[in-house]
Each structure stands twice: as C-alpha cells, then as structure tokens.
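Field reference: sequence -> structure
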Amino acid sequence: MKKKMKIWGYLVLGLCLLAGCASQKQIAYLQDVPEDYRRQMGQDYDIRINTDDLLSIMVNSKNPELAQMFNLPMVSYQITNTGYTGGQYRILGYLVDKEGEIDFPQLGKIKVRGLTRFELAERLKQELTGRGLVNDPVITIQFLNFKVSVMGEVARPGTFEVNSDRITLLDALSRAGDLTIYGRRENVKVIREENGQRVVASVDLRSADLMDSPFYYLKQNDIVYVEPNKARAGQREINQNRSIGTFASIVSVLTSLAILIFK
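Structure field:
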C-alpha cells in the first residue's frame, strides 16, 4: 500500500512539473539570456522626423523680440459639449507635409524628413545666424504627436503618447499592462509605416534576439498587436461546463490507467 502511494505521489509530482515547465516556456520573456548578459548597443534609436509629424519649434535669444517672430503662439482651449472654449494651453506646431517639409518663418520651405530633432535644431541655427536674423539662437524642438498603439491580448489596450525620443517594445507593452496569459509571446506583430510602405514584423519576446531587432525601438505611430493563443481562440466555442467535463474525463482516464498499471 505504501509503495502504491509513493508511486502515485511521484506520478502527480511529475505531471505538475511537466505542466509547470510547459507554461513557463510559453510565458517567460528573454528565456535564453545568460545570467551576466552584456552587449554593445549598436542601434540608432534617435527618432527621425517623418511625414505628418507635428513639431514644436521654439527659438530663444538674448533679444526676445528677434526670436518672437519664429515662435508659433500658444492657444487656450477647453473640451466642452459645445466645443473648445478657453482654459488649458497648447503650443501650435509645424506639420510636416507629404514632401517632408515645413514652412518656417523667413526661411520658407525646409526639408526636415529624415532628420533628428537635434539635427534640425542645428540646421535652423545655422540658417538664422547665417542670414543675420538671430545672432545667438537657442532652438528647442519637440514632437507633439508622437504616439504608439497597443492592441490585442494585453491588459489595457490603447494609444499612448510618448514624451521622450525613445520607447522600446517592452516599454509599450508595460504601459498596456503586459500581455494576458492568452497572448502569444513568440509572435508579437509590429506594424510600421516608413518610406511609403507598410511593414509588418514578427517579434519573439522569449528570445534575446528581441533586443537586436530593428523593431525593439518603436517609432511614431507604430502599432503593436498581440495575437491570441489557441486557448483564447477556442474559448468561445467551449463553454465552462464542457471544459470541466473534458478535464474530468481526462482525470478519469488517467485514474483508470493508473489502477490497471499498479493493480
């Protein structure tokens, strides 16, 4: 009797261990990263200006009157049932057109697509000083509409504004509350528009290769989609009672087999 109980105990423990290992391999991120992982960051994660970006460009100088003509005004607004009326303040921005240009005061059309905001600031500084418009300009540029969207099997899907020049795929998933237990870690989709093309890439969150992917750092208007796994896909077809019945049947079969084996 004791021998049978011991065998039963080993059988149950083995099943639990197998189930635990399988679930960990499906859920854990960066599984193949060694304990002391170090790798040189070779990627250029600086955000580059693209079509439809909205840029805040502020010019400052020791002579505020000279700089003022280059700064767009701030507008006040308040969201109400009847529209926008007084309240909060928002800086107007320069919209990058389909040609990748902005129309800047005194300088006219300037090609900005493909530049980082720091490169554009340096170019504007050279133009203003070279034409004798402002002798000591200090130029600050910010993105006003940098956002990424996360959808699918995450806790809080939505669109998230980005206030810095860098956001990783893991950052975006964290903002969305991480993947649910039903999300496919091995096949997360990133949808991106660049150079007039729409690109869809698959990323495996379980692999260290994630950090070398060109989609590890997200760009403006990227969409992250987490696919459901088979359990979620079939959940609508199998109600709770059927699931319990199936589980009970499996347990019954295993019990019968064990009795026959150890009888």
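Note: The helical segments are 2-27, 64-68, 117-130, 169-175, 230-233, 240-262.
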